[in-house]
Amino acid sequence: MMFAFFAGLAAGVLHVFSGPDHLAAVAPLAAGGDRRQWRTGLQWGIGHTTGVLLIAALLLLLSEQLPLDAISGYSERIVGVALIAVGAWGIWKARRDTSPHTHGGASFAMGTLHGLAGSSHLFGVLPALAFSQQSDAVLYLTGFGLGAMAGMSAFAAVIGVVSIRLGHNHPGRYRGFLYGSSAAALLIGGFWLVGR
Which helix (H) or strand (E) holds 196? Predict the structure, then answer.
């Protein structure tokens, strides 16, 4: 039973760090905060897990009746627009101020959109279907969700610490850091709109 949980945990962490769109969505939100910016990542992880589990449930229950490809395609475009909005907001923030903010609601919404969009996360949760025991499948999915939350919380914490140090010691570098993370969100958002 513990194998299923730890396999899901590893898959969740890997899933977070293998998606540049995930990191680009959270980096501008976590930059410029305080030492509790891990919460921004946790909110993203909770939202992502919610979206993934919703799609997984729909896939299992209503796969024949729902146009999941169409839902996924629309969700991908919404993620693209949301990434562009986060990037534009980050650039505006870099030009205006350097004061700390928390963005739990925005981060949760971004995570949920990412959970609903695309099919890559389904490859992360599909192994749950291979377990013969339903309890193992539940443990795997629990581990996957916790892995996504832990991975993004750690990423947001690192971004928060880096931006605090840059903000205190090198305001110009902090702004450059925020510009860079915001530009990444803009570029990846544009790719999701045009290239997918």
Answer: none
Is residue 177 classed exposed, middle or buried when 0-12, 13-18 and 19+ CB atoms within 10 A define those classes? buried
- Give Cβ neighbours of residue 9 (< 8 Å, ≥ 6 apart): 143, 144, 146, 147, 150
2-17 and 134-169 are packed helices; what angle lies between their axes, rounded to 10 degrees? 40
In tens, the pLDDT along 4-38 reads 899 989 988 988 888 888 888 888 888 866 667 88
CA distance 55 to 38: 26
State pTM to two decimals. 0.79
Query: 135's torsion region: left (phi>0), alpha (psi -120 to 50) or beta?
Result: alpha
Q: Give the whole-angstrom CA distance, residue 3 versus residue 103.
A: 35
∠ at Cα 127 (126, 128), nearest 5°?
A: 85
Instruction: Let me know: does 140 contact 7? Beta carbons within 8 Å.
Output: yes
pLDDT tens profile 115-171: 877 666 666 777 777 788 888 888 888 898 899 899 999 998 888 888 887 776 777
User: What φ, ψ does residue 118 adopt, rounded to 5°?
Assistant: 70, 175
